[in-house]
Amino acid sequence: MPLESIDSIEAYLARFGAELAARVSAEHPPLIDPRTDPVHPRIAELLRRPYAAQAHVITALARGFARGRGLVLVGEQGSGKTLIAAGLLHVMFPGPFRALVLAPGIAIRKWKRECERTIPGVRVTYLRSYKACVEFERAFLAALGGGCRVPIA
């Protein structure tokens, strides 16, 4: 079938689907096989248990980031992206850590609530302005015995 005669995605996939799948699998091997690979052990520490598929996504993302890869988490509304991201933070950082989440205003309270319900011992600070960010950093450094050279405008 000549390429010119293909007039739909269905026809394209019927003609090239097997070859396309083989090339994608060869160039981008999966980071985890949910049939054989266990989920990361720290997932069991989460206050809210992710579904099995979500736990495998957390594990795969942690493996990918550990290998220095840039990854993107994409999913439908309600698929658990916030839970997965919170779980990923817990898995990747076994000790105290700081993370900055930039979210649309409508989602900030949801992020805060879900992190508090998911990550053991987490403390979430909602920074509403640049000035609040600088003050937060200044207080953090002061608690460590350091100072802050960033002036507050």
Can you describe what's shown?
It is built from five helices and no strands. It has 153 residues and is an all-alpha fold. The longest helix is centred in the N-terminal third of the chain and has 19 residues. The protein is elongated. The N and C termini lie far apart (67 Å).
Question: In a nutshell, what does this entry contain?
Answer:
With 153 residues, this protein is an all-alpha fold.
What brief labels describe this structure?
mainly alpha, elongated, single chain, 153 residues
Separation, N- and C-terminal Cα atoms = 67 Å
The residue-averaged pLDDT reads 88
Largest sheet: none
Query: Would you tell me the structural class of the helices and strands?
Result: mainly alpha
H/E series: HHHHH
Describe the secondary-structure layout.
Blueprint: H1 9-27, H2 52-66, H3 81-92, H4 108-118, H5 130-143
Helix pairs in contact: 2-3, 3-4
